Amino acid sequence: MSHKITTFLMFDGQAEEAMTFYRSLFADAEVLSLTKYGPEGPGAEGSITHAAFTLAGQQFMCMDSSEKHPFGFTPSVSLYVTCVDEAEIDRLYAALSEGGTELMPLGNYGFSTKFGWCSDRFGVSWQLTLA
């Protein structure tokens, strides 16, 4: 039996906004499935119960938590993107860091001629590097 591992992102009411934003940044991005809470709950009506989507051919899942919790995303787990050229890394870093937190500004850190690490406005951490 072959196992499949998929990144699952749990948001607090911003899953659809985040998914739409990420899909606008990456090629080969699409929504595979999407279900929302109805008036019966348990989450806020119209928020995402479960969604599956792809970015650059990689599958992700996300949801809006129906419960408040004392934790969020942490930079100790991040999405690592190998960019094909400087234009791509500059575009992605600018978009992903806007409204978020720069953890390592774009620069040459020895292991990559251009690398940057940020948490986006939703709290998801991204590491971007040149190929």
Give me the CATH architecture of the largest domain, please: 2-Layer Sandwich
Average predicted local confidence, pLDDT: 95
Query: What's the helix count?
Result: 2
CATH topology of the largest domain: Signal recognition particle alu RNA binding heterodimer, srp9/1
Specify the CATH class of the largest domain: Alpha Beta
Q: Specify the biggest β-sheet.
A: 4 strands, mixed
Question: What percentage of amino acids are in beta strands?
Answer: 35-45%
As a whole number of angstroms, the C-alpha radius of gyration is: 16 Å
Shape: globular
Q: Secondary-structure element sequence?
A: EHEEEEHEEE
User: What is the helix content?
Assistant: 10-25%
Query: In order across it, which strands form the biggest sheet?
Result: 1-4-3-2
**Separation of the first and last Cα atoms:** 33 Å
